[in-house]
């Protein structure tokens, strides 16, 4: 049953609703309408997965132990669901009373029987249709949805928040969360609490303006409150004293540059202090020399900010990277726990945070006081440590690329990105998808003082060399088990490349995680020993969940290659696995002990074959111009160096780049329905330059690939 544009007559709708409600499986102990504050506070409830992090704690820890380190080797596929129209799948599904809900590409939402995989309903918000120019900066992926008292809330990539009836998928309300004329998008998950739902957005790389978060009434979709991460123009007056305070940490005319601070991922509700904790984004543009000439801390970029849950008013903040200039945002997950301090038996109510910058933070949730911070990445070169007296990083001299160029660890993808970590209170360990990769920052050729805010174009005010390929051997990764009390590594499992997805841990002493190479594995949470694995035939980007129906435990995950490192970074580092654009059928897979279903055949790995016409000679001047155009308009989806990581077609192998008339039709909108945006303003000279750049990349990469 499709509910997009679904408006049956009243009698028909009532009959269908009744039939569907009777068909939904019901687990004992929790009525669907009871998913509220009490349910989300309950750490012992184990049958359901009620929010992105399972419950308010965001620990991604399940008390289930039917599947454990001793019997995980018996896991087999219980059921699967093919998703042939989907591409990037990054979401955490929710499970409520035997029904699983999840978002796929372009925020299409489905409900399935969690025991059998039978489709119950689906809702298509038609994100492409609503996108307009936002299609230029949007990815198709969504990281999840929220459930509250019988309602689902989804956030569309084009900026809407939509309330759905959880039983039928019927749309209840829709709210546009930002001005559609702004270069913003949503890729994160909404968070429900206290009859409200909160959402942020992304767009700092495109001049998206002042970062903010907004809360809405979950029954109506009407606004409740908004908090701005970055202060506005002082001449217009400030919303409150907090914005006035933040403005003192900025220099120049930052409001004309954008400011940034978009809150694109991490939100945690802390019921014990009735506060919402938000992880804020990087500056817009990245380079502080352009954004805030003269320096300053630039509040509240790269911070954890605590807001009163009722009013959205500021309570406290901790800034991980004052005056950031490396894209080291703090949008990563914020985990709540009660932990003793080192050398003490007394527990503190703390939050655990491992942002991009390579340090692991333990912070008091009451007042934001830093309790401890240590490097969890092997190489961190932008700072030597954290000053515990001031809470500020001890920056290394020269790290801000003052002389125009600097190689910095970690990279802009971070030592830990949005891929969710988990915390197991039984082992006392945090499980982090860790990355070791550097970035080269160059701004010697950037006129930072005259830099202007871009118009729907990718511009960082610093050269990240995205016009060149990223080699296969770039970066390493691991699954890291970290002791947050003693701030030290306990065990570590090496993994391929640098974009492995999030984790889930259980009372059965297990950690589940997928991998970039298609392996889905379970590890002993105490030792890191692999106790089970299966190759699912395609790259994994989403984290798993676990739940139970009728006393039987299941483990589910979405399989669909996607995310920023694949679409934006990509290059040969991602293309080497063969997860080409639409190369494998996306899947929802569910495993259980002694599952007997056969793994689906999703398609073999595929690799692009660059087209190198013998009669085409790239012109160096046009290649250089095309390189700049590619970086500002194409790299966001088609990857660094025109070597696709699999999110979008590989332009080196595209026939349309040989024919200007066909290319013109595409840029005029012939493929909008597939997610390809319009670029009608590009001139024939621009198209010619892009052709020369792409053909040159086809030649260069082909030569590099030869033994």
Question: Percent range for helical residues?
Answer: 10-25%
Shape, per Cα inertia axes: globular
* Strand adjacency order, main sheet: 1-33-34-35-36
In round numbers, the mean pLDDT is 92
Give the tally of β-strands. Answer: 39
N-to-C CA distance: 53 Å
What is the overall number of helices? 12
Question: How large a portion of the residues is in β-strands, by DSSP E?
Answer: 25-35%
Over all CA atoms, what is the radius of gyration? 24 Å
Class from helix and strand fractions:
alpha+beta
Question: Unreliable stretches, pLDDT < 50, 5 or more residues?
Answer: 1-29
Report on the biggest sheet: 5 strands, mixed
Task: Describe the protein.
It is a single chain. The longest helix is centred in the last third of the chain and has 22 residues, at 684-705. With 707 residues, the chain is an alpha+beta fold. The strands form 11 sheets. A 5-stranded mixed sheet has the order 1-33-34-35-36, with no helix packed on it. It starts with 9 loop residues before the first helix and ends with a helix. It has 12 helices and 39 strands. It is globular, with a radius of gyration of 24 Å. A hairpin with a 2-residue loop joins β37 and β38 (552-559).
